[in-house]
């Protein structure tokens, strides 16, 4: 079982902080995960991810020659769409993004939502889903992704490092997935941090055939065989599931799930390797060890990827990640510079009209107003959030606006227009605030900036409504919250609707804003009667009733104070 933890609910976040400190030479933390330091020519960003508990997957695979970034969810839990969006934005180098993950419902939904949002912002995004688990379904497209994640991620990381374009990296990833098959077995279940019992048990003297990596038991229990018999079972089943037109070259992974000793894996490999050679196969650079784990599960799996010339080249290619290294070239040639983020992507401020620059001054004043509001109410917002959350909403919002204001002020000093100021502020908010609210507010400011643009000769109240719409759409696209879920959306959407109605009725904009702000304040207070349906507060739904939502409250405070400008 997992013995070392502080607060079990924060296990994933706590361990990740230690990971980031340890491997700061090759990656950096961003809200939602980690991205590799940049060096050399820009390349396609390969973003992998899923829940925690599988190390070295997924964050341990970030580095030169492997993944560009990893999204890190809670233990065995899909990361949110906001986390995926944040990591992809931070890792994007101008050549497009590949999102890759195992075939699970939550991952498909959240990575898909993030992809839609990124595409709306003009970023070309492709999705490669791993489907290697032959025990989970007959149809390939319905299979889970387990240890075969590793082969697919490795091929795409090498393809991106080799300079292939987005089409080429996607094609290589799909080829790797089509060529990969896995079967696993469990000897014992895994235990979540803080739990007293494992998620499942295996009868004494048996194994579970066809396990999943999120604590799912096998599809059936069988008497525990000898190592030689198990090796025959795994090899025979995977070979029988070989892809059509499979060749004679394979790579193999004998993967430990968490507590199976390396010596036991070596014992399995002795027979597996003999079986593969007896089948007429040439084995190329196999791996034996812990590659995709499942906390403390006792178990193992066999993965085969059938190779053609291109897949073999990418499989053999150098990589330097925290959890995996393959070296032909000197390691010094692989390590990126920790300062690469700044030099690899120098910002070019777009031309702006006089009207855009004038409105930019107003936007900067708005950011200053938000900063005053949040600093004044930081403690209050934290106390509201602590009733059914982790109490960090006030602190997180202050960190976000401070970074946003600094970035916005720098853009304004460089004579930028309103769109660029808001975009710069949003990117800084997302990077430095952390948490879901940081990503949402960052994307929202960028959405408002995109709606305004810096090319207009004049701006009207209708344009400001469009900016409010852009702000709200970014949040609903990423968070997928609706009215009644007890989030900031409960105050935000009524605010935008009221603003639109007032402007359409011919009300002057200052009065329209004040009316809409009053609506937001009323709706934020009304969230006290609601039970949360999303986020960390959801498990404490009953405790939350009677207290307004912190996000809705901060939104109402902000728009109210902005009305006094």
TrEMBL record:
The keyword Nucleotidyltransferase does not apply. GO terms for cellular component: cytosol. Keywords: ATP-binding, Kinase, Nucleotide-binding, Transferase. PANTHER family: TRIOKINASE/FMN CYCLASE, TRIOKINASE_FMN CYCLASE. It is an enzyme of class 2 (transferase). Residues 361-564 form the DhaL domain. Residues 7-324 form the DhaK domain. It comes from Lysinibacter cavernae. This is Dihydroxyacetone kinase. SUPFAM superfamilies: DAK1/DegV-like, DhaL-like. One of its GO terms (molecular function) is ATP binding. It comes from the Bacteria. SMART domains: Dak2. Its EC number is 2.7.1.29. One of its GO terms (biological process) is glycerol catabolic process. The lineage of its organism: Bacteria, Bacillati, Actinomycetota, Actinomycetes, Micrococcales. The keyword Kinase applies.
């Amino acid at each position: 079982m997992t013995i070392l933890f502080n607060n079990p609910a924060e296990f994933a976040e706590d361990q990740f902080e230690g990971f980031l400190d340890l491997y700061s030479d090759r990656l950096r933390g961003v809200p939602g995960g980690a991205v590799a330091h940049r060096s050399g020519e820009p390349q396609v960003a390969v973003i992998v991810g899923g829940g925690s508990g599988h190390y070295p997957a997924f964050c341990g695979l970030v580095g030169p020659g492997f993944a560009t970034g990893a999204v890190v969810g809670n233990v065995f839990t899909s990361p949110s769409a906001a986390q995926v969006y944040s990591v992809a934005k931070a890792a994007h180098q101008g050549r497009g993004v590949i999102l890759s993950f195992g075939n699970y419902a939550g991952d498909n939904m959240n990575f898909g939502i993030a992809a839609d949002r990124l595409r709306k912002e003009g970023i070309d995004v492709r999705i490669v889903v791993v489907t290697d688990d032959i025990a989970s379904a007959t149809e390939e497209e319905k299979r889970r992704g387990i240890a075969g994640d590793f082969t697919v991620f490795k091929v795409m990381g090498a393809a991106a490092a080799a300079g292939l374009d987005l089409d080429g990296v996607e094609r290589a990833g799909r080829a790797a997935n089509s060529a990969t098959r896995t079967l696993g077995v469990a000897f014992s279940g895994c235990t979540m941090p803080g739990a007293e019992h494992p998620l499942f048990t295996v009868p004494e003297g048996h194994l579970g055939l066809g396990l999943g990596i999120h604590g799912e038991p096998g599809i059936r229990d069988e008497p525990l065989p000898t190592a030689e018999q198990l090796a025959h079972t795994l090899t025979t089943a995977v070979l029988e599931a070989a892809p059509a037109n499979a060749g004679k070259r394979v790579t193999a992974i004998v993967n430990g799930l968490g507590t199976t000793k390396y010596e036991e894996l070596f014992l399995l490999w002795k027979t597996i390797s003999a079986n593969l050679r007896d089948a007429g196969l040439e084995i190329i650079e196999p791996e034996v060890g812990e590659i995709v784990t499942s906390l403390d599960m006792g178990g193992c799996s066999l993965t085969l990827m059938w190779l053609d010339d291109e897949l073999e080249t990418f499989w053999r290619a150098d990589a330097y990640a925290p959890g995996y290294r393959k070296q032909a070239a000197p390691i010094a040639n692989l390590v990126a510079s920790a300062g690469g983020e700044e030099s690899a992507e120098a910002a070019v401020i777009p031309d702006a009209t006089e009207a855009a620059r004038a409105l930019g001054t107003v936007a900067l004043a708005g950011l200053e107003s938000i900063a005053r509001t949040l600093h004044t109410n930081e403690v209050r917002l934290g106390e509201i959030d602590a009733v059914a959350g982790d109490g960090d909403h006030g602190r997180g919002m202050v960190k976000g606006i401070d970074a946003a204001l600094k970035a916005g002020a720098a853009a304004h000093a460089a004579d930028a227009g309103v769109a660029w100021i808001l975009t710069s502020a949003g990117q800084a908010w997302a990077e430095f605030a952390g948490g879901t609210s940081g990503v949402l507010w960052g994307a929202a400011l960028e959405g408002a900036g995109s709606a305004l643009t810096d090319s207009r000769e004049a701006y009207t109240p209708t344009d400001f409504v469009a900016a409010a719409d852009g702000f709200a759409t970014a949040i609903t696209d990423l968070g997928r919250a609706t009215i009644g879920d007890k989030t900031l959306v409960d105050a935000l959407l009524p605010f935008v609707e009221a603003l639109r109605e007032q402007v359409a009725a011919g009300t002057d904009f200052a009065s329209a804003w004040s009316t809409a702000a009053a609506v937001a304040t009323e709706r934020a207070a009304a969230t006290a009667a609601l039970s949360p349906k999303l986020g960390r507060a959801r498990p404490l739904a009953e405790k939350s009733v009677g207290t307004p939502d912190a996000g809705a409250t901060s939104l109402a405070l902000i728009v109210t104070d902005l009305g006094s400008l």
